[in-house]
């Protein structure tokens, strides 16, 4: 028995820590670079690093990675010196890069001008996006792809030090995931800068969301496999000048986000918004609303519940409210509505020392045209603070 | 003595050209091993130097096939000797380890009518593996293209239009995007509701492959044959085969909440009155995937009619619009009662 047991143990040890972890380098100048890079991503083994050479990669088809514990590393994100994956001539695939395996690190490269999404990861647990640039270089256009960085249906997601510009939906979009951190990143000139949708336990902090239509969105939508979004903290972010006219294709939920929105919570339970610098958002620095569309989903909960807004610094806001009736409300209130806007549905505590405007629409089925705007005092006892998100140490180690 | 007689008889038959000598099956070691052979010929699927399959494999078709740029397809099954595939309760066919499914794609007039590519699904001890092979210019063998490739293809569509497209041979990962169930590779095509053996049912060795014929009592109709089923059933079959492999709760599009299998209920999750989730430009400015009675405002149709990679569905395997398939779905949506969610 002992003799049999030993070789098996040895084999397991080898599998757990591959002795032959290697670096596969691919050059942008290789003929058939697209095929060679894809080949490297397929032939990589757990523990391997696929290294993208510096230069501009002209890619015609989407790339994909389906091997666990692989690092895809470039030479940087800057034009002229980094590894630039240029999808301007893309012919196929819904995204530039698709990751479907666990424990992947993506770092130090740029993805430009994809036809659909930039980088998507699905069912990719413990993924780390670090020092990346995803950009539509012509700036805001309705024909740009939807999401820049797009993890979905995953557990443990870290997005750290990325730059995303020009997405026609959300620059950074995390959907239907659990245990999520988005930090130290910049989202500029997207429709939504950062969007957390149908997620459980997420921290969004120390980011800069500027010149989007809406800065940071926390949504919960019906008829999806994971819903009932809750426990989201949005803190220590700079959210300003979100004034880019909404350029999302109509029909999408973000197309309804009023230009000039800072932080927007739609539905969800337990969201804390604190320590942010909120300024120059023409509709509102903070908006809290219910899901006000018809839906056919008995399990869906359309109200925002237990939302807490505290300790934020508010600059100018509410001077150009971009929702029906907004201009009239601003005019009636001396040129601007208060920095915090609530549709009147669900429950929220706002302890910031700024005004709150309620639209007086507690029932989400009441049309917005029947709004009864009035100042509201939402000061109150804050619920117990959320514990915050802790990621596995293996993920934090990758960005040290 | 009997063996010699049999061999002699076989030789005589062969010489007369009436019946081919029973050939050996494919190379079981290549199927079972963990290598990715560079040349397709190593599998022994086709007669040496040709794209004609050996007789030992079992051919089949589907009532409603996946659209792949109007490609004509040849489908083959191999089950290792001494084993049989079985039919599961939910209508899927369980193939034993050592099985292989072969699918070749070609167009009349392209490569002299020979296949352009052949894809293999190999059921190995650690699960299914997908390998794409592109046929060499001389048509004698095919070469592994693990990272996929675009191959220029020219063909005439049924409406008479000529198309020249950069046909996309999928890479190994893309094979899995469609052939994925909860992250594992699985066959899609062969299922009781859709498989059609035609004359192969009469083969003397049919029972060697299947313990019982894996045929449904309530099969899917043929999408383009009104005699085979109602408009609704044909549209649902088309959606199942072309979309349902990703659009199901365990597939690549699980996060969309849009579920398009034959067996999925008719409601929001089938797209009826369903707002876009992560469709991006795919919404085309429309509110619903399917707006009953109004195909022009149903973005499911919009996505099927688009060739833009940021809009088009399916995401893989389509460089042309399937006009006839879209027409079927348009007709189906048009006849839905406008208030009927």
UniProtKB/TrEMBL annotation, chain A:
Key word Signal present: yes
InterPro entries (alphabetical): Beta_helix, PbH1, Pectin_lyas_fold, Pectin_lyase_fold/virulence, SO_2930-like_dom
Q: Does the keyword Signal apply?
A: yes
Keywords (alphabetical) are: Signal
Domain spans labelled Right handed beta helix: 92-219
Give me the ranges of the annotated region Disordered. 361-400
Signal peptide, first to last residue: 1-21
Q: SMART domains under this entry?
A: PbH1
**Record protein name field:** Parallel beta-helix repeat-containing protein
Species of the source: Sphingopyxis indica
From TrEMBL, chain B:
The organism's superkingdom is given as Bacteria
Q: Give the signal sequence positions.
A: 1-20
Q: Does the keyword Signal apply?
A: yes
Keyword terms of this UniProt record: Signal
The answer to whether UniProt assigns keyword Signal to this entry is yes
**Name of this protein:** Cytochrome c domain-containing protein
């Amino acid at each position: 028995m002992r003799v049999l047991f030993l070789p098996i143990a040895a084999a397991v040890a080898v599998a757990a820590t591959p002795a032959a972890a290697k670096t596969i380098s691919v050059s942008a100048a290789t003929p058939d670079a697209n095929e060679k890079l894809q080949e490297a991503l397929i032939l990589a083994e757990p523990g391997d690093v696929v290294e993208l050479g510096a230069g501009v990669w002209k890619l015609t088809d989407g790339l994909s990675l389906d091997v666990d514990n692989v690092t895809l590393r470039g030479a940087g994100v800057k034009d002229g010196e980094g590894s630039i994956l240029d999808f301007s001539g893309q012919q196929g695939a819904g995204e530039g890069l698709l990751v479907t395996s666990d424990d992947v690190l993506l770092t130090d490269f740029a993805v430009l001008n994809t036809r659909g999404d930039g980088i998507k990861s699905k069912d990719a647990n413990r993924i780390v996006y670090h020092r990346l640039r995803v950009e539509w270089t012509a700036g805001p256009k309705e024909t740009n792809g939807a999401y820049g960085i797009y993890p979905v249906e995953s557990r443990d997601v870290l997005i750290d030090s990325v730059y995303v510009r020009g997405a026609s939906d959300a620059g950074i979009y995390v959907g239907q995931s659990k245990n999520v951190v988005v930090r130290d990143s910049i989202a500029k000139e997207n429709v939504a800068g950062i969007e957390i949708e149908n997620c459980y336990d997420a921290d969004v902090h120390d980011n800069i969301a500027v010149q989007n239509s809406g800065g940071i969105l926390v949504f919960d939508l019906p008829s999806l496999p994971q819903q009932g979004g809750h426990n989201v903290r949005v803190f220590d972010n700079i959210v300003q000048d979100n004034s880019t006219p909404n350029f999302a294709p109509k029909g999408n939920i973000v197309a309804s986000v009023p230009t000039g929105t800072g932080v927007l919570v739609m539905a969800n339970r337990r969201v804390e918004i604190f320590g942010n610098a909120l300024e120059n958002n023409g509709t509102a620095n903070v908006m809290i609303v219910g899901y006000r569309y018809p839906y056919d989903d008995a399990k869906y909960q359309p109200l925002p519940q237990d939302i807490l807004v505290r300790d934020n610094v508010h600059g100018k806001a509410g001077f150009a409210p971009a929702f029906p009736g907004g201009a009239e409300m601003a005019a009636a209130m001396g040129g601007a509505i208060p920095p915090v806007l609530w549709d009147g549905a669900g429950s929220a505590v706002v302890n910031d020392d700024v005004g709150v405007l309620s639209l007086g629409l507690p029932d989400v089925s009441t049309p917005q045209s029947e709004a009864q705007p009035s100042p509201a005092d939402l000061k109150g006892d804050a619920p117990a603070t959320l514990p915050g998100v802790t990621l596995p140490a293996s993920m934090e180690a990758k960005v040290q | 003595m009997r063996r010699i007689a049999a061999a002699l008889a076989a030789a005589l038959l062969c010489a007369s050209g009436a019946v081919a000598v029973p050939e050996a099956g494919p190379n079981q070691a290549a199927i079972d091993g963990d290598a990715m052979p560079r040349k397709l010929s190593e599998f022994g699927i086709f007669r040496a130097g040709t794209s004609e399959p050996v007789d030992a494999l079992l051919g089949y078709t589907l009532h409603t096939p996946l659209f792949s740029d109007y490609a004509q397809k040849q489908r083959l099954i191999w089950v290792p000797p001494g084993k049989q595939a079985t039919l599961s309760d939910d209508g899927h066919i369980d193939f034993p380890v050592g099985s292989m499914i072969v699918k070749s794609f070609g167009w009349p007039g392209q490569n002299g009518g020979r296949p352009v590519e052949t894809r293999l699904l190999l059921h190995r001890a650690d699960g299914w593996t997908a390998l794409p092979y592109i046929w060499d210019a001389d048509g004698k063998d095919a070469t592994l293209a693990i990272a996929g490739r675009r191959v220029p293809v020219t063909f005439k569509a049924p409406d008479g239009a000529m198309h020249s497209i950069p046909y996309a041979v999928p890479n190994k990962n893309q094979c899995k995007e469609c052939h994925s169930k909860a992250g594992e590779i699985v066959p899609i095509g062969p299922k009781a509701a859709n498989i059609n053996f035609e004359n192969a049912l009469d083969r003397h060795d049919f029972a060697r492959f299947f313990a019982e014929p894996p045929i449904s009592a309530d099969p899917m109709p043929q999408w383009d044959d009104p005699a085979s089923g109602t408009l609704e059933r044909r549209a649902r079959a088309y959606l199942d085969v072309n979309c349902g492999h990703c659009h199901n709760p365990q597939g690549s599009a699980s996060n969309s909440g849009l579920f398009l299998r034959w067996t999925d209920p008719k409601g929001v999750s089938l797209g009826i009155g369903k707002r876009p989730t992560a469709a991006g430009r795919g919404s085309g400015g429309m509110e619903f995937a399917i707006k009953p009675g109004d195909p022009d405002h149903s973005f499911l149709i919009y996505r099927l009619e688009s060739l833009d990679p940021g809009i088009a569905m399916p995401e893989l395997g389509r460089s042309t619009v399937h006009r006839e398939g879209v027409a079927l779905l348009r007709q189906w949506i048009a006849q839905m009662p406008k208030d009927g969610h």
